Every structure is written in C-alpha cells, then in structure tokens.
Amino acid sequence: MVGLLVAAAVAAAMPAAIDAPAPNADPAIFVVRDPDTTVYIFGTFHALDGKTDWFNDQVRTAFDSSSELVLETLVPEGPKPYAPSRPPRLGMSVAPSASFLATTRMAIDAGRSQGLKVNYGADMILREEAEATGKQVDGLETLDSQLNMFAKMPPMAAAAPPKVGEPVDESPVETLSRSMVEMQNAWNRGDQSVFVRMLDQLRQASPDTYRMLFAERNSRWADWIAGRMQTPGTVFVAVGAGHLAGKDSLLVRLAQLGIESQRVN
How far is the C-alpha of 61 from the C-alpha of 53, rounded, in Å? Predict the structure, then answer.
C-alpha cells in the first residue's frame, strides 16, 4: 500500500481528435498578492493523457500576466540549458534508492497503461510555453536535492502474498492505474478532496515518507514564496496538485506565515 501511495505521489496517450474540441477542464489555481506582487499557485498533474483543454480561462490569464514561471524542479533535458540559481546545488551526485526506482517504474507502467505521458503533463506544457514566449523559468528545487530526498526515503513495504486458496486481487500496477485515473479526473474538475484522501492514507501508512515528500517541502516552498513577495512582479508557481491539499499544504503553510490565498477558479 505504501508503495502505491508513494508512486501516486511521485507520478502525480493519445491527443484529442482534431475534429472534436477537447473537453474543458478547470484545475485548481490560487493567488496570493500584496500591493505590488502577485503570485499565482497552480496545482499540476505531472503526466496527462492530452484529452482535455486545461490551459485556458483563468489558468491561461494568470500565466500570460506572469513574467516568471517557477516549477518544482528543472530537469537537465529541457529545451534550453539551464543553471538553477536558487537554491544552491548540493555539490554532489546522489543516486536514487532501489526502492524509489522500483516505485517510479511502477508509476510509469501504470501511467502508460492509461495513456498518461509526461509530455502531455501540465509542467512540461507550461515550461515549453514559457520558454517559447521568453519568460524566465526557475525551479524551487534542484535535481540533486530531489534525488537526495528520494535516496533517504524509507523502503517501501511489500504487499503480503495471498494465502493459498484466496482469490488474487488486481495487481499493484492495476490498482495504481485506477488511482491515477481517479486523480486525473479529480484534477480536471479542480476537486481537491481526492488528493486530501490520498495524502491522509500516505501519512497514516508512512509518516516519514509523507513528511519528506509533502510537509517539509511545502514549508520550504512557502518560505520561498514569502521571500519572493518582497520583490514586485507577477509570478506563476506550478507544483503538483497534492501540495495544495490537506492540513500541511503549501497554502496552509503560507497562511501560517500570514499570507492568505484565494482560489481564482
């Protein structure tokens, strides 16, 4: 169970037919602002099936009005070489744990079975659009810091094998596939409740994993936004939708710093 939940958190194929408009989606977007600074906070889904039109309405308006895009991290294989300026790099290469690699493989297999692709994911679409229009693109974390975090995660608990004569339930990949479809549908609707439930299950099953993946990172990102609010301008911050849900969400952490957020849509 822990492995499935972490895979869903880490993960978090065919484009729509040309002759039919894609269904409209309204993923959640929030804003914090003061007299001279506006920070939009958009909850992304890292791999999508390309069958809905989400980059429109309030999301598009907020993005177009922003001069800077800030993602969770920038992978080296971006369209343009990029040297992140903050936070500083760790100065060392960290190999992800075997547990993390296995979990990632399961997430990839589950997503592929449902037609989900990173190239259709909100993060990739936003980055490509930002670079095409000359916006500054930055990352909240470096790739090294993420790998270091994954290397320190506790091992995933293996599922108990079925007893003799006991019916075999669906495979872990099938279970995860179903969960990912449920989360993508919730994301399309802007429904945070599914992510709240997933996070509660993860917190109960593996408190350390939950703390490292969500609570601690949300706190660091809230500090970053609080610091960015001291510089005038408009910024579009895009992080996984799970970071905007639950009692330790980025939005809750901001409120604890005295920065109130409002939902745009």
Answer: 14
> pLDDT in tens for each of the 265 residues of the chain?
444 445 555 554 333 333 456 789 999 999 999 999 999 999 999 888 888 999 999 999 999 999 999 999 987 654 443 333 333 333 334 454 555 545 555 555 555 656 678 889 999 999 999 999 999 999 999 888 777 777 777 765 554 454 555 544 666 667 777 788 888 999 999 999 999 999 999 999 999 999 999 999 999 999 999 999 999 999 999 999 999 999 999 999 999 999 999 999 9
- CA-to-CA distance for 222 and 250, rounded, in angstroms? 6
Asked whether the bond before 15 is cis by omega within 30 degrees of 0, the reply is no
CA–CA gap between residue 200 and residue 75 (Å, rounded): 29
Question: What are the residue boundaries of the structural domains of the chain, listed by start?
Answer: 2-161+170-263
Number of helical H runs and strand E runs in the chain: 10, 6
Question: Is the whole-model pTM more than 0.85?
Answer: no
